[in-house]
Write a structure and sequence with these properties.
By secondary structure, this protein is α+β, with helices and mostly antiparallel strands. It has 13 helices and 5 strands. The N and C termini lie far apart (about 100 Å).
């Protein structure tokens, strides 16, 4: 049987349990995922607001004041948490000041014995905050259509509409302040059920969203180099296979370059491995900045990077590689960085990625032999070799 004591108990228990679950997830989430801790604190605030009035038949005004403070804090934190979880800008100061002003006004209304207006004010704050958060979630539902955003949206709408219902009921006199001696009206029942359901649905949406972020982070770490942030071999290979297939299908050229940092061991020996790591990160950033959006950059290992140029012949790729060489030379770091770059290309059905790698690698060695800090084209090596053979 539904009564106010049972519903208040559920209102205290469910958010508390969900706060523990979401709070525990923080230990496995990457540091850059922001919002779960704030949402957990919001849930704790909802639980505390209900728990404070639960044991009392007629709550003391001082207890009600503390309960209202917990409620205002929970509502404010919930709005902030949703925007943080969605990685959207959030007017933190404005939200905090709005919550503080609403609570101060609620205290004044309590002193004036205007409980109905106090309830309406707090419920309007809850409604506006949760419906504003729902408005922020709605575009994500249209863009991605993931179940996490859908649950979050439904939960926030349920909480917002429940608050609107109670605000209307308070102003129209449909029911008065909640006391455990009063009978449970239909409006009161709908309010509590919608609010508890909304908290549960929204929290499940938050958990699913966090799990999706964790899965994305695991996939990112599996395919990207942790030091430089560029693709590693595992992430590069599927993109390279796809580029080869597309170039063969459309009879387009495909170029491949190897960028090898010169005298990198000397940086580690003279300045330490921390300086070497910083130099690698700076070189990767410089390479990314000099490449086109269609180019694919990968750290092959050590001080060696690889670049795949789609729909680009060897001459065009060599021009881009010259920009890469200059960018590396201008990259900040201990001493002066430089790079030896070898580039090779093929077209259409003749493209073989292993052959491109071998030819580009030979070109890198040629660049090293010729004095480093230069770009060498594989076709030029082949031409020089043919000319030498003919002269012999």
């Amino acid at each position: 049987m539904l009564d106010e004591r049972t519903l208040l108990f559920e209102m205290a228990l469910l958010p508390a349990l969900l706060a523990l679950v979401i709070g525990s997830l923080r230990s496995v989430l990457p540091a850059e995922v922001r919002g779960p801790g704030i949402w957990a604190m919001a849930l704790a605030g909802y639980a505390a607001a209900a728990m404070l009035v639960l044991p009392r038949e007629v709550p003391d005004p001082r207890i009600v004041a503390v309960s209202n403070l917990c409620l205002v804090g929970a509502v404010t934190l919930a709005g902030i948490a949703v925007h943080r979880l969605l990685q959207r800008p959030c007017a933190l100061l404005a939200r905090t000041l709005t919550g503080a002003a609403a609570y101060a006004t609620a205290l004044l209304l309590t002193l004036l014995s205007l409980s109905q207006w106090r309830i309406a004010l707090l419920m309007m704050l809850m409604a506006v905050t949760h419906l504003d958060a729902a408005w922020a979630v709605a575009p994500r539902v249209r863009e991605r259509g993931r179940i996490a955003e859908r649950w979050l949206l439904v939960g926030l709408c349920s909480m917002g509409m429940a608050a609107l219902l109670r605000a209307y009921a308070a102003l129209s006199g449909s029911f008065g302040p909640v006391t455990l001696r009063s009978g449970l009206s239909a409006v009161n029942t709908i309010y509590f059920v919608a609010l508890i359901s909304g908290i549960g649905l929204a929290s499940v949406g938050v958990i699913l969203l966090l799990m999706a972020r964790l899965r994305e982070e695991i996939e990112h770490r599996a395919t990207h180099d942790s030091l430089t942030g560029v693709l590693n071999r595992s992430g590069f290979q599927p993109l390279a296979d796809q580029a080869v297939a597309q170039a063969r299908r459309h009879d387009q050229p495909l170029a491949f370059a190897i960028v090898d940092l010169d005298w990198f061991k000397r940086i580690n020996d003279e300045h330490g491995h921390a300086a070497g790591d910083a130099a690698l990160a700076a070189a990767a950033m410089a390479l990314r900045g000099a490449l086109r959006e269609v180019d694919v950059l990968c750290r092959f290992g050590g001080e060696e990077f690889a670049v795949l140029f789609q729909a680009t012949d060897e001459a065009q790729a060599a021009q881009v590689c010259e920009r890469l060489r200059v960018a590396v030379a201008n990259a900040p770091g201990p001493g002066r960085l430089s790079a030896s770059i070898g580039v090779a290309a093929a077209k259409g059905a003749s493209i073989d990625l292993d052959d491109l790698f071998r030819r580009a690698d030979n070109a890198v060695y040629a660049a090293k032999r010729q004095g480093r800090d230069r770009v060498v084209r594989a076709s030029m090596l082949a031409s020089a070799s043919s000319a030498g053979t003919m002269q012999a």
